[in-house]
Specification:
It is built from 58 helices and four strands. By secondary structure, the protein is mostly helical. Keywords: Membrane, Transmembrane, Transmembrane helix. Residues 1-28 are annotated as: Disordered.
């Protein structure tokens, strides 16, 4: 027999909230309920028996179908009986539970037999039945109904005894905790009586290895916290936890282990805890800890197990409470002050017991309480005036040694800390808490003292040294659960690393350069470890700690850490280099690469001291001073550059490095702010990674995959490009010969890239790197002279080059020619370098003319060759213009010869006939744009029709847009590529007014034939945007004709906007408004009075209050409309007199839409960029209101109605505070010009809730009104 339920400590019911109880159904008599329950039970019994016989006849056992069958039957019956008697559902639930043999107290006449299932299956089925009943949400309604007095079955009594029967089930299964959890979800009353036992059993089974058990227990504990939080009974939860920490009867006390998910949920609960519960919980913690410490001190037992668990929960509580909440009642403020006095006393008593040996392994618990108390103390000292007045800041009279923590905690003297740590490495918990206390001491010192004083500096340095010296640098790390208990060597290393990196801004300045380099070597070692296993959610992995730190602003703003990081990186590269065994090498061969990286990583103190300096210049010669006059760091860079010159000049190397090591080094460099490094670090990285680029020549031979070779080379080149493009001046070519570097990189990279013609990315990176080197080299006069031999060499080789096999060499020559053309184009050339520049440019021009002639004789004319021909011809044209301006006798030959004219004819033919591919079109268009730009200065060129070229380009652009729309979403922004837009800008800028008028007419015809959403409409709209940006403000010739055409465009756009849906076509609407704004900025005679009136009518019909697919489009539209209306009020004043009502309608729409999108509920879901845009919208509206206030006669009578729009829109909303503040200024500006009769009229039209708001705004505006004299 199952024993009857016993009374427990939780017999008192928890009141069910009234809003959870639905209205009760009409009562049914007791006799009717009895008959109905009996009848339903008989039917269900026959159904179950029939199903059992059918399944047994087919060879199935009850365990195969019963756990799934019974919950389905119960769910179906409850769905059918939803509007009937609620007691019947409980009857059926009780009957099924009786079939499982869990409860046998159903006194019905129907006979039943217990199903043959094991304990796990019974409990699992029981949980599913409870889940079905929980989903029905009938419990509250059933409890609200009157219970029959004479019935054989009483549902309320059955449910009240449910929790008691859980105590007789086997709790060593996941199903047991799932059942308790489901019952608690139905109603906390059901398990309140067994909550202590449930928690006891949870702690007792935490050491089981079953993953399912741990998962179910985590869910159970989290649900417990949530349930007590909703009922505002967290103190009751703590009492239950304290009672549950004692071991089960007859069981051996085992270790207690509180889950991380429980602590995280409890922490979230503490952040929103009321002040009354806060003080009560705090007092409970202290009383319970004092009681256990007293028992241990009196020799009544060792309470270490209970104390350590309670301290962990208590510290979580202290770390997350809002102790300095501004709305806290004075009574609770006083209680917190008392509790702050009591907490250190309890911790001190616990610490003394631990030192005396009466409490095992509890020293870290006492220290942890003191640390948590210190955090609350710092918060109260900063934000609570009454607390700071009663607790004065400690005075620092002399520097504090590394083991003295008495500055913030008087009890933690140096002697006591020494007693705690006879062997620090054997007590990881104590050591880690001491780390925390040292960090807390540093923060307190900086808060209470001057950071620059000697005592403060020495104290902080001692604390930093203590932490670093007791951390095992370079030790292995494992995932850590962020809890100060059960540390292993690996988890302690992770915790210490996390602490060091989190508080690095406080500690870095006090650590030596060698210590920083060791720390960075540890970071690099962890980065290379890519074996991160899957860990639980709340665990911290070493790689995640390192990655988060390197990506944070703490690292990007810490120059000492960046310097140490680069030093450690080059040291790792040096250690990874190995010499290849070669039979012809001598024993004393110098390993140049290893020596280079050793030089770049030597003397960390020197790099830390001088990294911010720049090399000294001789102001007479504009060159660097001699190596002996440089400081130590730049002397090291000079030595490294000499080694790099030797490496570049040597043809072979006996050193190699693995591709994995280079990959890790390149990935690590991406964490550095390469654009903003100190001069020393920037130059060191440039020298080092140019060495890596040449080291790849040896390393790449051992890599079989071509993609790996290209990937490593591209990554290194991109890194060098980023360094050369930094915000600081690169000093690389002050130590290296620029021409030698250019020449060697050309020879180096030309060996690897020719086979990758299908992939244009490597060649793009290659050309970009050469461009950067040439750009910096041409800034130095001596370097320009040094390029003369290289130019002669290229002049001998290029005329016979094949466009396909020698593309890298041709690309290098084009880069040089481009730089020389830029130099020749300058208005002033220095006398020392002018002959060299002119001669080299002439040589390259003749060389490329010969190459073009040879290329045109080739009938195949490969696409790559044609592309190069277009680039070269464009440079030839630019050079011809510059040479014509100089007109020297040395330049007797005309550079724009027949070859360039032939290439121009070929480009024209390609564009007109549209035979080439997409890339070919872009190169041809860019070449044609250059030719058109200089057509008036080059008499040898034939007349080119710009409208015809544009029509051909339009056909190509629309074709490419159609192809692009098939594979991606086509927008106005991406329908034209960047090169296509540049081409349009160039040809439109060099057009005459007559040609612009001709193109506008043709474009208008095309746009009238387009469908609104077609790809051609988007291309033509984008083209019109570029054309509008190129239109002149004042056009005298063809002005009237152009104005008529532009008016037709405006009318076309106004009609188009009437057919567009803002929700679906928000991008098109935004673009069209932008075009109209651009046209509006044009002055007479381009935009007439009639055209501006049409634009104003378009704005009047616009409604920005509709829903946009993306809020960014709303912001763009809003800003555009504000600018257009401001233009009307500033520059088109003649429109205002007749269109004041239209402008009023537009401003009212702006106010309504901004109020709609600026509510707090809406702003919560916006990213920070969008919120910033909304604030700009509000500022634009304020500027618009300022302009309106300057026209009192036109807007004085209607200004109050604009205020009414704001009132009616915001009366039921809570606006985002910064936007609301700006809107207040808008209202004040409007009230400044409003008339009293209009104000009274508006008050009569407003609803009741808006009247008070309007009056308040009016009174505030009068207070803000300026009445003085200027």
């Amino acid at each position: 027999m199952v024993p009857p339920p016993e009374s427990g400590p939780g017999d008192k019911e928890i009141a069910t909230p009234a809003n959870m109880v639905p209205p009760p159904e009409p009562p049914i008599s007791a006799r009717s309920q009895e008959l109905l329950s009996q009848e339903c039970l008989v039917q269900i019994k026959s159904l179950v028996d029939g199903a059992s016989e059918s399944m047994e006849s087919r060879g199935y056992f009850p365990a195969d179908y019963v756990p799934q069958c019974l919950p389905v039957v119960l769910e179906g019956f409850m769905s059918f009986n939803r509007s009937g008697n609620l007691h019947c559902s409980v009857v059926l639930l009780a009957y099924f539970v009786s079939l499982l043999g869990i409860r046998c107290d159903v006194p019905f006449k129907a006979h039943f037999e217990v199903l043959k299932l094991n304990k796990r299956q019974k409990q699992s089925c029981f949980n599913k039945l409870l889940q079905v009943y929980e989903a029905s949400e009938e419990y509250s309604a059933m409890m609200a109904l009157p219970q029959k007095k004479n019935g054989a079955f009483k549902p309320k009594t059955w449910f009240r005894a449910l929790g008691t029967y859980f105590g007789y089930l086997d709790y060593r299964t996941p199903a047991w905790f799932a059942c308790v959890n489901t019952a608690m979800s139905i109603s906390p009353n059901l398990v309140e009586g067994i909550m202590v036992k449930a928690l006891q059993r949870c702690w007792a089974t935490r050491n089981l290895t079953s993953a399912d058990m741990k998962k179910v227990q985590d869910i159970f504990l989290v649900n417990v916290v949530h349930t007590y939080e909703k009922l505002f009974r967290i103190p009751k939860l703590l009492r239950n936890i304290f009672s549950s920490l004692s071991p089960l009867e007859g069981a051996t006390p085992g270790p207690l282990y509180v889950t991380s998910s429980f602590l995280n949920t409890f922490a979230k609960c503490c952040t929103v805890m009321s002040s009354g519960q806060l003080t009560e919980c705090w007092s409970l913690f202290l009383d319970q800890l004092a009681y256990w410490v007293g028992k241990s001190k009196g020799g009544e037992g060792n309470m270490t197990r209970e104390i350590s668990t309670t301290v962990e929960i208590f510290c979580t509580f202290l770390y997350h409470i809002q102790a300095a909440a501004p709305t806290m009642p004075a009574v609770d403020v006083k209680k917190i002050n008392q509790l702050m006095e009591k907490t250190p006393k309890v911790a001190s008593e616990m610490l003394d017991c631990s030192i005396e040996g009466k409490l095992d392994e509890c020293a870290h618990c006492a220290l942890l309480i003191l640390h948590a108390w210190g955090e609350v103390h710092i918060v109260l000292q900063s934000y609570r005036r009454s607390y700071s007045e009663s607790n004065s800041k400690p005075v620092l009279e002399a520097s504090i040694n590394d083991k003295d923590l008495s500055y913030l905690h008087p009890v933690l003297t140096g002697d006591k800390i020494t007693c705690l740590l006879p062997e620090p490495k054997d007590s990881k918990e104590v050591l880690y808490v001491l780390f925390l206390l040292q960090i807390q001491k540093v923060r307190a010192l900086l808060m209470c003292n001057e950071a620059t004083s000697d005592a403060t500096t020495d104290s902080i340095a001692a604390a930093a040294t203590f932490i670093f010296s007791n951390t095992s640098i370079m030790s292995s790390c494992k995932a850590w659960d962020e809890r100060v208990c059960r540390f292993t060597e690996e988890t302690f290393s992770t915790a210490a690393l996390n602490l060091l990196l989190s508080y690095s801004p406080l500690l870095v300045s006090c650590l030596t350069s060698k210590n920083l380099v060791h720390l960075c070597e540890w970071i690099l070692h962890i980065l290379q470890d890519s074996h991160d296993a899957t860990v639980p959610k709340h665990y911290v992995t070493p790689k995640a700690v390192v990655t988060e730190y390197l990506s944070s602003s703490s690292f990007k703003e810490s120059k000492p850490m960046q310097t140490a990081f680069i030093t450690a990186l080059f040291r790792n590269l040096s250690e990874s280099i190995k010499a290849m065994k070669r039979s012809h090498d001598t024993k004393d061969a110098t390993p140049a690469f290893k020596q280079l990286f050793d030089t770049l990583s030597s003397s960390p103190a020197t790099w830390k001291k001088y990294a911010e300096t720049i090399p000294e210049l001789d102001h007479t010669s504009k060159k660097l001073v001699g190596p002996d006059d440089l400081n130590k760091m730049w002397g090291i860079i000079h030595d490294a550059s000499q080694l790099l010159s030797v490496i570049m000049s040597s043809s072979e190397s006996s050193e190699r490095v693995t591709a994995e090591c280079l990959t890790h080094a390149l990935q690590a460099m991406e964490f550095l702010p390469l654009e903003d490094l100190f001069p020393g670090n920037q130059t060191r990285c440039l020298v080092g990674f140019i060495g890596v680029l040449f080291l790849l020549k040896t390393t790449l031979r051992n890599i079989t995959s071509q993609s790996d070779k290209v990937m490593l080379t591209k990554a290194t080149c991109n890194l060098l490009i980023t360094l050369l493009d930094g915000t600081r001046r690169p000093w690389l070519l002050d130590f290296l010969d620029g021409s030698l570097l250019f020449n060697k990189i050309v020879l180096l990279l030309s060996e690897d890239f020719p086979q990758d013609l299908d992939d244009t990315a490597p060649h793009g990176v290659y050309e970009e790197l050469l461009n950067r080197i040439a750009r910096d080299a041409f800034r130095k006069r001596n370097t320009v002279r040094a390029f003369t031999p290289l130019v002669k060499q290229l002049g001998d080789v290029i005329p016979t080059c094949d466009a396909i096999k020698s593309k890298p060499l041709l690309a290098a020559a084009i880069v040089l020619f481009n730089q020389f053309v830029m130099e020749v184009s300058k208005k002033f050339l220095h006398q020392d370098t002018r002959p060299y520049i002119q001669k080299s440019a002439l040589v390259l021009s003749k060389t490329f003319s010969s190459w073009l002639t040879q290329f045109l004789e080739d009938r195949t004319q490969h696409i790559e060759g044609r592309s190069l021909a277009f680039q070269i011809s464009a440079l030839q044209i630019k050079y011809a213009v510059a040479a014509h301006r100089l007109s020297t006798e040395d330049m007797c030959e005309e550079p724009c010869n027949k070859a360039v004219l032939s290439v121009l004819s070929m480009a024209w033919t390609d564009v007109m006939e549209s035979k080439a591919n997409a890339m070919m079109h872009q190169e041809a268009f860019l070449f044609l744009s250059v030719a058109l730009k200089y057509r008036h200065m080059l008499t040898a060129f034939p007349d080119l029709s710009v409208p015809d070229i544009w029509m051909s380009a339009d056909f190509v652009f629309t074709t490419e847009a159609k192809r692009l729309s098939e594979c991606t979403s086509l927008t106005v922004e991406n329908c034209l590529s960047e090169k296509q837009v540049i081409f349009l800008q160039e040809i439109f800028k060099c057009c005459t007014p007559k040609e612009i008028t001709d193109m506008l007419e043709k474009l208008l015809i095309l746009m009238l034939d387009d469908e609104a959403h077609s790809h051609t409409a988007k291309v033509h709209l984008r083209t019109f945007e570029v054309l509008c940006a190129s239109l002149p403000n004042n056009v005298e010739d063809s002005g009237k004709e152009m104005a008529d055409i532009l008016q037709k465009f405006i009318e076309h756009f106004s009609v188009t906007l009437t057919f567009l849906n803002v929700t679906k076509d928000d991008e098109l609407v935004t673009r069209i408004l932008g075009v109209l704004a651009t046209l509006l900025y044009l002055r007479k005679p381009s935009i007439t009075h009639q055209s501006s009136a049409v634009i104003l009518q378009v704005l009047c019909a616009l409604d920005l209050g509709t829903t946009f697919s993306e809020i960014k489009f709303f912001c763009e539209c809003y800003l555009t409309v504000c600018r257009m209306l401001s233009d009307f009020l500033q520059h088109r004043v003649y429109v205002i007199a007749g269109c004041a009502s239209i402008i009023h309608t537009c401003i009212a729409m702006l106010i309504r839409s901004l109020v709609k999108f600026s509510s707090v509920d809406e702003v919560k879901g916006y990213p920070s960029e969008v919120i910033s845009q909304l604030q700009k919208c509000a500022s634009s509206l304020e500027r618009l209101a300022t302009l309106v206030s300057e026209h009192t006669r036109e807007f004085g009578k209607i200004a109050p109605f604009l205020v009414a729009e704001y009132v009616t829109g915001s009366v039921n909303l809570t606006l985002y505070p910064p936007i609301k503040q700006t809107l207040m200024f808008v209202m004040h500006k409007l009230f400044s010009i409003s008339s009293e009769p209009s104000n009274k009229m508006v008050l009569l039209t407003l609803p009741k809730e808006g009247t008070e708001v309007f009056k308040l705004l009016y009174s505030n505006s009068k207070k803000m009104c300026f009445r003085g004299k200027v």
